[in-house]
Amino acid sequence: MKAEIRDQVKQMNDQGIGYKKIALELNISIGSARNVLKEKDDSMSCRFCSKKLNFVEGKKRKVFCNDSCRYQYWNSLKKVAK
Q1: Nearby residues of 5 by Cβ (< 8 Å), 6 or more positions away
Q2: pLDDT reported for residue 71
Q3: pLDDT digits (tens, 9 = 90+) for 7-62
Q4: What are residue 45's DSSP bridge partners?
Q5: Are 23 and 32 a contacting pair, CB within 8 Å?
Q6: Which of 14, 44, 70, 81 has its CA 20 to 30 A from that of 26?
Q7: Domain locations in the chain?
């Protein structure tokens, strides 16, 4: 896949467009769009503190860097909902 298309996929996803819609608009397979976005996930950061996350091959992808960030994130959402 060309670098231009990869960049477009990442840019569209940053705008909040899902991989299925991206695949339809760019006329590529859904699997290709998903794979490009999966590569992008390797540089993810913690949802709460924005610290860069380290991934272990074969393990579930992390969303938070530790339990403290996870608890604080979910508790902050509870306060907003009230």
Answers
A1: 26, 28
A2: 94
A3: 999 889 888 888 899 999 999 999 999 888 877 655 678 888 988 888 777 888 78
A4: 52
A5: yes
A6: 44
A7: 3-81
Closest CA to 49 of 75, 70, 77: 70
CA dist 59 and 28 (Å) reads: 28
- Taking the alpha carbons at both ends of the chain, their separation in whole angstroms is 47
Q: What is the 3-state secondary structure (H, E, C) of 9-73?
A: HHHHHHCCCCHHHHHHHHCCCHHHHHHHHHHHHHHCECCCCCCECCCCCCCCCCCCCCHHHHHHH
Tokens at 30, concatenated:
């859904």
